[in-house]
Amino acid sequence: MTAGEIKGALVHRARALGFDACRVARCDSPSHAAEFRQWLAQNSAGEMSWMERGADKRCDPQQVLPGAKSVIVLALNYWQGASTPSDRRRQTGRIARYAWGDDYHDLIERKLIQLNRFLEEHGGRQKCYVDTGPVLERDFAAAAGIGWHGKSTMLVDQQLGTWFFLAEILTTLELPPDEPQRSRCGSCNRCIDVCPTRAITSAHRLDARRCISYLTIELKGSIPIELRPLIGDRIYGCDDCLEICPWNRFASASRETAFAARPAVGMRLRDYLELDDAQFRALFRGSPIKRIKRRGFLRNVCVALGNVGDESDLPALEAAATDSEPLIAEHANWAIDAIRARRTSCKSVATLNDVASARS
Ligand code: SF4
Ligand code: SF4
After folding, report:
1. Residue among 181, 182, 184, 247 whose CB has most ligand 2 atoms within 8 A, to mutate
2. Distance, CA 339 to ligand 1 centroid (Å)?
3. Percent of the chain whose predicted confidence (pLDDT) is above 90
4. Is 357 among the domain residues?
5. What is the distance, to the nearest Å, from the Cα of residue 3 to the centroid of all Cα atoms in its chain?
6. What is the domain count for the chain?
7. What mean pLDDT comes out for the span 231-245?
8. 189: how many CB neighbours lie within 10 A of its CB?
């Protein structure tokens, strides 16, 4: 088989496995290697020290797979359509769309094993990654023509919009590369303007330490007090800069049923506070949310209740304030104070209104 025929057969197999795109980039140095090092030097990665540890490999794919010639990039759509499992009447929290259903890592890895086998049959040596490998995956995806670098720093694709997972296969096979897409952001700045925490400091620049996805998922400890009110009702990740992107008008619903929303993502906020460790693990078994464990998740729930909860949530928060996990107890106390402060300011406004109407 020629290299072109191997690539054609690979793309065919990837499609049959459910991938929405399978394209190839040359295994050169990633285009944002220098910016990535600068970003790390500015400490913009916050507590994500694993990024620093793998920095040399991320900037030089030959250190990941000596002799690598091509990077095969795969995209899998996870969009579940416009409806959401959140129900404002029941005070549910918001969870990033990618985490509504089953964990994508295992599901995609199983598909990659099959593609790896096919490439081995044709003499290739491979390294396969889903999200967690030491690879600047967005650079290779953009070079292969799966989206362009949006101003949000996320990839945007003409067909898929912003809702897709990426996976990469580094291979020693030299496959014909695909053409990149040109950027179609134009004068749009919607993702920058919508960010609740101003984490996108300018086009293509993200201060991860302010990003709600970082604060609610990557950060292990206490959420900075000044950022808590900006988190609103988000309890796992944030989709605002994706949701607003006009290129999502072409997005279609994923064919992957494993990504459909579980009932656990639509629960009333205060009901999460009743979960003990075993119940949390059972509820989120096989979900990306299990990664932040009960202590991280209940921390986030407390912050959301502090922002959108009311007096009816106080008993659950008071119980959480006695939790043996200090992180949960501290955030529960903050939420109690936030709800009480809101109640006091509402009463003050009501009193002022009464005085004003009595005078008129
Ligand atoms: S995920 Fe949310 S907080 Fe983070 S950059 Fe996007 S809009 Fe801002
Ligand atoms: S919202 Fe606008 S600026 Fe941001 S990524 Fe989408 S098209 Fe680009």
Report:
1. 247
2. 25
3. 78
4. no
5. 35
6. 2
7. 97
8. 13
Kindly indicate the confidence band of residue 359, based on its pLDDT and cuts at 50, 70 and 90: low
Q: Which residue has the tokens 């096919």?
A: 118
Asked whether 156 and 184 are in contact (CB, 8 A), the reply is yes
Distances (CA, A) of 83 to 69, 79, 245: 42, 10, 17
Q: What is the pLDDT of residues 176-207, one digit of tens each?
A: 999 999 999 999 999 999 999 999 999 999 99
Q: Which ligand is nearest to the CA of 152?
A: 2
As a whole number, the mean pLDDT across the chain is: 92
The pTM is what? 0.90
Do residues 165 and 272 share a domain? no
pLDDT greater than 60 at residue 88: no
Residue 325 belongs to some domain of the structure: yes
Shared domain check, 165 and 17: yes
**39: in domain:** yes
CB 17 within 8 A of CB 111: yes
For residues 42 and 162, membership in a common domain is answered with: yes
Does residue 162 contact residue 248 with C-beta atoms inside 8 Å? yes
One domain, residues 37 and 144: yes
Angle at 100 between CA 95 and CA 104, to 5 degrees: 120
Q: How far apart are CA 24 and CA 71, in angstroms?
A: 6
Q: Which residue among 97, 190, 197, 244 has the greatest number of ligand 1 atoms within 8 angstroms of its CB, and so is best to mutate?
A: 197
Rounded Cα distance between 39 and 43, Å, is 7
Do both 271 and 166 map to the same domain?
no
Q: For residue 279, what is the domain's CATH number? A: 1.25.10
Is 257 inside any structural domain? no
Torsion angles phi and psi, residue 43, rounded to 5: 60, 25
Residue 43 belongs to what domain range? 3-171
CA 186–ligand 1 middle distance (angstroms): 20
Tell me the CATH number at 55. Answer: 3.40.109
